[in-house]
Amino acid sequence: MPDVVIRDGTIIDGSGAPAFVANVIIDNGRIADVTSACPEAEETIDATGLVVAPGFIDIHSHADFTLLVDPRAVSALSQGVTLEVLGNCGHGCFPVRDQAIAKTAIYGVDDTIPVDWSSCASYLGALERAAPAVNVLTLVPNGQLRQAVTGVKDTPANDEELSAMLHLLDEGMEAGAFGISTGLEYPLERGADQDEIVTLLRRVATQGGFYATHTRNRDDGAIQAVAEAIQSARDAGIRLQISHLLPRGTAEHGIRCIELVDKARNDGDDIGFDMHTRTFSMTFLHAMLPAWALENGLRHIDKVVSAPRLRSRILAHDSMLSKLGWHRIVLLDNDIVPEFARLTIDEIGRRIGLPAKVAALNLIERARLHRQPLMVIAPVYSQEDQKRAFAHELCVPGSDAVTLAPDGPLAKSTFHGAYDWAAWFYRFAVNEPGFLSREEAIHRLTGRPASIVGLEDRGLIRREAKADIAIFDEGFGHTTDLWTPNSIAHGMRYVFVNGALAFADGSVTGNRNGEVLRRSR
Q: Measured between alpha carbons, how far is 8 from 253 in angstroms, rounded to an integer?
């Protein structure tokens, strides 16, 4: 007798093929059959009138740390997400040599969980002990890789340093990482030149991994940065995934970036891209700092900014935030300076009688001893920009967010996209304004990201595939808005992870059956 029968559901199998009505048989964590037959089972779920799809795959997650703090992954499961790809944008939890520096490149980091691991293997072991409710896999985050060897150096690695980086990269790949990511716009990686990156990519390519990149410049130099990423991947012979492709510049820049991807694809490159579902850019306020200012971590930033010469160097530094313009950058809700939440940095500066950049530095200093650093957003995309990206056949959505829960240790944490990215994408792409079929939208959430990552037994409803399954009604969508981002999506009925029911009737079941996936060599 099989474990579960999902009866009479509308199967959208993740391949892009037309929907059909059938029964899905689950046994021993896998899909035993997709059939018109309906055998007796330990449990039967009536899916009449509901969509039965593969579990959604978040190809661009930053849940590296929050899954350790609260492994229930409520924000993910409530949207049908069953797999998180970690280690993006060069940010992540390994390798760790200097904890103070490493913590500046971990989203969602706080002091509730000690960072008592160093390598990819020990980090993945920590994840396994946490027993996440969703499946996870990781890339090697180059920001952490680089700082573990070079510290906060803002020039290219020398031969000795590059050799040490390759050794750590090999360790990560041997431990099961699926590839490497860069965040070349961030302080820890701005010193890496193209030759350095290509050397790393060649090593990953020999081991069958792929390359995901947050490009070097996402403002006025975005077109050149995308061209650099394409050339680097081409020189290394590696599959390329460009993270959140659309730049923060004009719509014309976005169109040009997409044209570069199309040309590369036509030239034979294995390339794709993803986009988050926010209309704004989001990052740490301390992204305004040069790498050297982070040498002793944020806790000691007061010693840096109190030295007049160093303070002047920081204020002269041209960062990704200063390029956006302080009149556009908005401080998010926080417990450190709540009186300034939802205000632009320009306005905060006016209220405290300081130039905007000095005010931003003042805020970083005030936040230095708190559990979580300050986060900011800046509006950058229109609905037309998003439609242009998501309508493209090579684009898949990703959260660009952490996993959260409305109760427990992360109840007071917020991260835009955590609770709504998949639900928003489905509503936007299928219902409002509706430019993709249900089948194609689900393919972008399932089969296509599985193919990009290289997973052969996930992302599809078919015999012998892992039983990661999302069952939802046609009202599936998000309930969030800009200032209430922590709101559970509606319409998701049931979610199975490796054959175990993880979400039902609007809440998690307590089954934490996720697997820490390791790339097979």
A: 47
Distance CA 75, CA 369 (A): 28
Peptide bond into 95 cis (omega under 30): yes
CA distance 148 to 150: 6
Q: Does any domain span residue 87? A: yes
Q: What is the pLDDT of residue 411?
A: 95
Task: Single out the residue of 217, 243, 244, 239 nearest to residue 228, CA to CA.
Answer: 217
Per-chain mean pLDDT for the chain: 96
Residues 502 and 372 in one domain: no
**Is 405 within a domain?**
yes
Please name the residues in contact with 237: beta carbons below 8 A apart, sequence gap of 6 or more.
202, 205
Alpha carbon dihedral 482, 488, 492, 496, in 10-degree steps, equals: 120
Place of tokens 């992954």: 73
CATH number of the domain residue 259 falls in = 3.20.20.140
Residue 249, pLDDT score: 81
With H, G, I as helix, E, B as strand and everything else as coil, classify residue 502: strand
Domain boundary among 362, 378, 394: 378
In the structure encoding, which two tokens stand for residue 421, read together?
A: 């990215």
* Lookup: tokens for 337: 């300076």
**Locate tokens 């992540």: which residue?**
92
End-to-end CA distance of the chain: 35
Is the same domain home to 62 and 190?
Answer: yes
Burial of 475 (0-12, 13-18, 19+ CB in 10 A): exposed
User: Among candidates 211, 287, 209, 217, which has minimal Cα distance to 257?
Assistant: 217
Kindly list the distances between the CA atom of residue 212 and the CA atoms of 48, 116, 249, 254, 397, in Å, as whole numbers in the listed order.
Answer: 39, 27, 21, 18, 14
Name residues whose C-beta falls within 8 Å of residue 158's C-beta, 6 or more positions apart in sequence: none
Q: Which of 334, 357, 378 marks a domain boundary?
A: 378
Which residues constitute the domain of residue 459?
A: 54-279+380-480+488-508
CB 201 within 8 A of CB 241: no
- Does 265 lie in the same domain as 172? yes
Q: Do 389 and 351 sit in the same domain of this protein?
A: no
Q: Does a structural domain hold residue 284?
A: no
Q: Please give the pLDDT value at position 67.
A: 98
What's the domain count of the chain? 2
Collect the ranges in the chain with pLDDT lower than 50: none
| Amino acid residing at 8 | D
* 373 in any annotated domain: yes
